[in-house]
Task: inverse folding
């Protein structure tokens, strides 16, 4: 007869497995909607290849559940990667179709200025039910992109925590919200520039940088090695702090490489080379500069391993490091 502890473990495993299945089901549903939009626009059987990542996603679920003790891999989340791999190419194709429509409209109208072209699409007669919903191609693409970012955060929340603690998961999800907001703003603000609307090369570069930044969602940057036994000794606490610092350093490097540096470079390119200089572009460029500066400042603090604190022993407001305070008074316990 199973003990109460064993029953609780089994119930927790089943609950986590159901949540993982629900998250993957949401990924597949959104992928099918994206595939439907692409197939409706291009009418080419070749684009059935967009469904391959979702077939792999159905295979990945039992493999991950069986091969991992916690229900999720430690450093990378393959389900989120396959989801991104299945949806992002569809968004690319819809953006390129919108570019083609703008270019064709500019040629037909004889205009020398490339502007937005609105072509409404509707749901057809689906099983005898007429849905009175009209959306332009741009609105469809924006909606699919927004749903992508929302499901990346929600899916990570529903998926098993793996080696992450609840606090680490909450920290990771809050970081994801900021990443999603920056990602959406970058694609919207950059692609709607008048100098960019009909420039194929720049649009491809922007979409490439945007896709590159989404890889952050696949990485568990707060994952730490968890020892089987807790160590309350001074050496164990020092080792745990070192692990936290290494995790923070890893998260900062990933953020700079995958998002902040490419975003800043692209915005500087748009301002200097393309001439897209206006209030919003200047604001977000300054924000990128400030964020990168703060990240490098924090990276330097973590690498040096020194944290400035107020020298409260002497009451003079001077600043000293923990090492210096220990040398002055070895009996002082530093929090």
Result:
């Amino acid at each position: 007869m199973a003990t109460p502890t064993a029953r609780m473990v089994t119930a927790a495993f089943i609950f986590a497995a159901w949540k993982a299945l629900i998250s993957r089901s949401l990924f597949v549903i959104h992928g099918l909607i994206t595939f439907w939009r692409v197939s409706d626009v291009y009418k080419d059987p070749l684009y059935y290849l967009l469904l391959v990542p979702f077939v792999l996603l159905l295979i990945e679920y039992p493999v991950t559940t069986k091969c991992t003790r916690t229900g999720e891999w430690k450093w990378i989340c393959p389900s989120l990667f396959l989801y991104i791999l299945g949806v992002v190419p569809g968004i690319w194709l819809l953006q390129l179709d919108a570019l083609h429509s703008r270019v064709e409209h500019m040629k037909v109208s004889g205009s020398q200025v490339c502007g937005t072209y609105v072509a409404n699409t509707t749901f057809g007669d689906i099983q005898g039910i007429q849905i009175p919903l009209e959306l332009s191609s741009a609105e469809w693409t924006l909606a699919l992109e927004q749903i992508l970012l929302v499901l990346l955060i929600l899916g990570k929340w529903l998926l098993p925590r793996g080696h992450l603690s609840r606090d680490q998961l909450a920290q990771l999800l809050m970081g994801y919200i900021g990443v999603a907001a920056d990602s959406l703003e970058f694609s919207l603000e950059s692609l709607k520039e008048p100098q960019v609307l009909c420039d194929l090369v720049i649009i491809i570069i922007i979409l490439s940088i945007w896709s590159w930044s989404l890889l952050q969602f696949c990485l568990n940057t707060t994952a730490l090695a968890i020892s089987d036994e807790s160590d309350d000794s001074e050496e164990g606490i020092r080792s745990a702090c070192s692990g936290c610092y290494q995790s923070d350093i890893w998260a900062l490097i990933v953020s700079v490489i995958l998002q902040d540096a490419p975003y800043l470079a692209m915005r500087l390119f748009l301002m200097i080379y393309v001439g897209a200089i206006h209030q919003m572009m200047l604001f977000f460029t300054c924000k990128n500069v400030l964020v990168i500066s703060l990240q490098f400042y924090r990276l330097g603090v973590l690498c040096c391993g020194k944290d400035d604190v107020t020298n409260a022993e002497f009451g003079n407001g001077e600043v000293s490091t923990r090492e210096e305070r220990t040398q002055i008074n070895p009996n002082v316990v530093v929090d």
Q: What stands out?
A: Confidence is low (pLDDT under 50) at residues 122-132, 224-234, 236-241, 308-320. The first helix runs from residue 4 to 42.
